[in-house]
Amino acid sequence: MKHNAFTLAEDMQNSKLKFGFTLSEILITLGIIGVVSALTLPTLMKNHQRQVYVTQLHKVYNELAQAAEQLKTDSNVTRLGESRLRRQGSGYLLNHYFKTTKTCNNDNLTDCFGNDYQNMNGDEVSISNFVPANSACAIIASGASICVSGTSYLEVVTDINGKQGPNIVGRDLFSLIIWNNGTVTTKRDPSDADDNFIDNCTKGVDAGEYGTCLAKIISDGWKMDY
Length: 226
What we know:
By secondary structure, the chain is an alpha+beta fold. It is built from six helices and eight strands; from the N terminus they run ααααββββββββαα. Strands 1-4-5-6-7-8 form a six-stranded antiparallel β-sheet. A hairpin with a 4-residue loop joins strand 5 and strand 6 (154-159). Helix 5 (194-201) crosses helix 6 (212-219).
């Protein structure tokens, strides 16, 4: 049977139609995509935000370690207790080794930190409960708020994004220790078992004072898996 030009064109058109999608099929597909997106997008956003927190925390952690080492070098000593901190006070570290945009103290903490905080378990806490007396506090160039106290070793409290939320201990508020040898750590006594701190993080137990959540983040390879 011979085909003329019109017949061939008609066959080609019919062939294309066989491989097309109906409107119903397209709508069903779009509906499935919408449902999958609705289920996965919140998780993706939450994971992204947690990674942002960890990135900011790691930056502050490294800046503190570098500042402590530079302070020892400039003071020509091997221990912070022998450095200029002994004479100048803990504020010397912030004033000379960080670019600050605002300074605060225990009397005006809310100028640098949020007004309301809570633990991982939802309990409300006051920022003044975490900041030792006679601390020197400032907002640094990165936007993080930092308080430091001590001379032989430094207790540090930081809100990695300043007054911004969520203002939760273990999310954006952390405590650190800069030991006398300049090592930045997560607790006051290096001999304490890490398991206790990691377990207490999500329960809100001593989360601020001893850096339990920071211990868990470091243990998990700088990931916020809680």
